[in-house]
Amino acid sequence: MRAGIRISSLVPSGLVIESVSDSSDSIIMAVRAESGVAECPLCGARSSRIHSRYDRQAADLPCAGKEIRLRVITRRFVCEVPHCRRRIFAERFGDDVLPSRSRRTARLDCIVHHLGLVLGGRPAASFAKRLMLPVSNDTLLRVVRRRTALRTDPLTVVGIDDWAFRRNRRYGTIVCDLERRRIVTLLPDREVATVRAWLAEHPGIKIVSRDRGGGYGEAVAKALPDAVQVADRWHLMENASAAFLDAVRKSMRAIRSAIGTPTITPELLTSAEKLRYESYLRWEDTNAAIAKLARDGLSIKQIVRRLGHSRNLVRQTLRGGRTDMFHTRQRSLDAYYLFLEGQWSGGCRNGAELWRRLQAQGFGGSLRAVGEWATRRRRSEAVSQQQLQRIPSARTIAHLMTTKRNCMTKADAVTIAAIEAGVPSLVEARALVDHFHDMIRKKDEAKLDVWIANAKTSLVSSLATGVLKDRAAVRAAITQPWSNGQVEAQITKLKLVKRQMYGRAKLDLLEARLLGTA
Description:
The chain is of the alpha/beta class. The protein folds into five domains: 11-103, no CATH class; 108-146; 157-232 and 483-517, Ribonuclease H-like superfamily/Ribonuclease H (Nucleotidyltransferase, domain 5, 2-Layer Sandwich), CATH 3.30.420.10; 240-261 and 393-475, no CATH class; 263-392, no CATH class. The protein has helices at 106-119, 122-130, 137-146, 192-200, 214-223, 233-250, 252-259, 271-295, 300-307, 311-318, 337-345, 351-360, 367-380, 394-401, 410-422, 424-441, 448-455, 461-469, 471-479, 485-500, 507-517; strands spanning 15-22, 26-33, 38-39, 46-47, 50-63, 66-78, 88-90, 157-166, 170-177, 182-187, 207-210, 228-231. Strands 1, 2, 5, 6 and 7 form a five-stranded mixed beta sheet that branches. The protein is elongated and about 105 Å long. The model is unreliable at 384-388 (pLDDT under 50).
């Protein structure tokens, strides 16, 4: 049996169809209110005395591939209450049917709102055109802003982190409700005063999860001194790994001696390597001058004034961060050295031909890298095979030292064994970092004080100093179930929405879209 559709079901509830006219691209319906009385918007009295009528134009949801346009016959009523100042009023249809002064029905406005939330301005306007919804991109954004509803739920546990309007230039702050897993607000910057003012408006917050930066910790301490601060566990793990990498970089000279790498021979260097080597020699002179002035008792400020170098360079040198200036970087050829040696031993000595054969093996580097290797290989044939030894980069050594022996090649295992035997301080630093990771994973906060005491005299003393300064937050990170993982996920969502708007979203629009889709 064929199902029938009543034409009255095409209009919102509470409206009655008077007439219908059809055109090539739209259907025009004349509608009126079903009720015969209306309430005065000022005094609330009901009236049935009609003064006059006029027509309102409104758009509704499309049907059968055509736009639906409503010609709403609106009646004016006379208020019969003597003391009411509103003598004549127009009938209202309800905010859930047709809001006052609106050119769209409530259900169409809801669709427009959700299109704007999900797609933004121009993409939503283009999609709406395909759906036969006559709406512009500016209208979509106005609807999103107008229907924004700020969170009013009481906050107890929040997470705070920064995000970039423009990387390394301008940053904002995101605040998330960790209990309800949604965004609360976006702040225009990450200044202490801004975050402190917002936190002071929410005294009910008991726990604040934050990253390892000191700005948010200072703001929380000033605005909510009784709140528990929780350091982000992922950042703690990452800080420990970065501290071990820094320890490897500071120990590169000792590592070179332990591996037995020969002295650099300038005659074997390519043009690019000679430039780096000359820079290395100049840096060595700078380091020696800074060290001499420091031994004479001059402060960092006095050394900066006398030598003209930056304060950061002087401080980094005195802290041992520039001990291996001629560092070896991880290269794209590292994984293909055995293949290159085999081809060279087989008689292929042309750099271009070697590069073409490497490309067949999946190599994605440049011809210049292969040409430099061939040049260095050709020059070294007259010297000794030992000159071909190349020390791995600091990052590679740090990775190998934290990898199980059964997961690395025999050559790598021999190299790491030599480093461990020649540089025992690195082995101690690795053990301390492993203990720190285990302490966080197993939530064993009782070992924290002992670990800090042991790490103070090791190569990862900078990590121990940072943990000591933020001991309460680190201890809470080990014991509390809260962390900033949710906040990082919300930042990823924020970046997606921001890039949909080509990075030009203002803060209020960005906040409206994020709060609306949460």
